[in-house]
Amino acid sequence: MQVISWDKDGNLDPRGMLTYSQSQEPESPHYADLTHLYSEGKWIRFPFSEAEIQADPELVRLELSE
């Protein structure tokens, strides 16, 4: 799910949630990670502007060419 709203200052506030978690493997640390967040009403805030995306320390670029 993805929801985009605005904060009190009129800035975009993009949030999302993968309600069924990131893994189907019970031994994975990601087996129920996002399900727990969803049940607690916590959403993940997405980087939205180019500056926010570039500032992400986990950013990985992949350039494909023919």
Low-pLDDT residue intervals, each spanning 5 or more residues: none
Taken in chain order, the helices and strands follow as EEHEH
Total count of helical runs of at least 4 residues = 2
Please compute the radius of gyration using only Cα atoms: 15 Å
Strand content: 15-25%
Give the mean pLDDT.
88
What is the spatial order of strands in the main beta sheet?
1-2-3
Query: Percent helix among the residues?
Result: 10-25%
| Count of the separate structural domains | 1
Strand-pairing-aware structural class: alpha+beta
Q: Describe the global form.
A: flat
Largest sheet: 3 strands, antiparallel
How would you portray this structure in words?
With 66 residues, the protein is α+β, with helices and mostly antiparallel strands. The chain has one domain (2-55). 20% of the residues lie in helices and 18% in strands. The chain contains 2 helices and 3 strands, in the order ββαβα. It has helices spanning 33-39, 50-55; strands spanning 2-6, 12-16, 44-45. It has a 3-stranded antiparallel sheet, with no helix packed on it. The N and C termini lie far apart (33 Å). The mean pLDDT is 88.
Features:
66 residues; alpha+beta; 3 strands
What are the SSEs and their pairings?
Layout: E1 2-6, E2 12-16, H1 33-39, E3 44-45, H2 50-55
Antiparallel strand pairs: 1-2, 2-3
A few lines on this structure:
By secondary structure, the chain is of the alpha+beta class. It has two helices and three strands.
